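Quick sanity check, AIG1-type G domain-containing protein:
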Amino acid sequence: MASSLQELSKFGEIIKKSKSFEDGNITRYQLQKMMDSTDQSQSYEKIYLGERNQQKPYKNILLVGETGTGKTTLINTMINYMLGVQREDKVWFEITDDQSDRNSAHSQTSRVTVYGFYLQESKTDLTIIDTPGYGDTRGDDLDKDIAVSLLNLSKSAEGIHEIHAVCLVIKASQNRLSDRQKYIFDAVQSLFGKDISENIVLLFTHSDGMRPKNALTAVKEAKIKCAVNDKKQPVFFLFNNRQSEPADEEHDEDYDEEYDEENKQRLDQSWNLSFKGMIGLFEFLDTIKPKSLEMTRDVLQKRQQLEANISNLRLRVQMMELKQKELKQTQEALEQNKKDVIANKNFEYEVEVSDKVIVDIDHTKASKATCCNVCKENCHYPGCWWVSNLAWCEVMKNNYCTVCTNKCHYSKHVKEAKIYQIKTKKEKRSFKDLKKKYKDNIGGGVSLVKKLNEELQELEKEKIKLVIEAFDCVETLEKIALNTDSLFLVQHIDVLIEKLKEINEPEKASTLENIKKRAGEEKHGVDYIKRFFLK
């Protein structure tokens, strides 16, 4: 009864609004969510407790970790720390079910969750951007979920414009980072500007309190960039995931008093270790200067434009090559019918012609695309997300498209589940129609060939321009991004290298080859990338 009275006096208001359930000698409380937005049109889910106090200090953190590392327990521990819960209180508050941490099969989600902890009991408001759990081999581009969610969050009503810390969650017992961990930590780092490295900290879970030497070595070998202390060592904090477990107070005939006391001590140590880690983490948050997401938005914008440019490039190059084929077939027909050309006599010939047609999207690859109705081009496919206002599409800048040939206004675009594809067919043509098409030319067949060559040269100029634009995006990323050796670049870089060589830009091609080489050396090859994502 005394414990119950203590709870009511200390956490009375919270308990009144929470759902309780017993767990041994600890009472667990499922906190009532003051705001729970699950709008599927959003790229993230919002869960808030309390109301934001604009006069109170605030912190924004990004939480990244593989499924099974204990992120859920970590989030709940943050709540209890902020509420001032002590071990002797024998209560535990949860925003999300800890059981999901123990059953990773049910904790998979492809959407970012934003937790807003605006608690009267805490001197600081806290926003946690919890990224999806990574641990399966589905091959989804889940890093894009983080990228798009951050971009959308920075534009949303919540207005998250800066990040105080990026927290990488790792099990303290790990001897090496898994391929998936390397990938996702690499991908997350590639989202930010170079100045974010001093805000990246390591959170080691399932810790026994000892220095996690093997895990730190694994982080070093994986070349994870993070904050360092005065001794140039990584900044990390330790947590044990047993702090919410009740002490065993049920005695039977085989009751071992010594074992019971040892178990109680272990649980107390677990509690103290985790809350000591929280003290260190919040002290770090109080001292570190937050980093603006402005550079991150630039990085994300360049990422989207680069992907869109390369995708659009392939379509244009394909059109150019088909046009070139059509030109050669026309030249051959003129050569084969040279006498008729000289005599200005009509004849027929056959060529393979190409055209752009609108088709339904393969929903295994994407759901929607942004296309230009004027240029008949796919401006943002794949990777076009939830945004309904086309002026906000990542490939738009100052209301104009950065990708399509004519850089058309966003109003000339449409977002739907359709894209443009190139179709070819055989077509009968005549010398008479050919002359009519180029009636402003004089000099017979030679002028016709010259005109067709001029058209081909214009297509080649467009190709060169697009390739250089894509290369410029990579160069900009190299300057502003923390990590440019990610899957995002690796999966496209070969295409760019090939096209740069075709347009006689060997130095630019060499620059990209060096990036590719560095990616191979630093990440011990890119086989793990291909294994999961380039199937």
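Posting the structure with no commentary besides this: The chain has three domains: 26-292, 298-460, 483-535.
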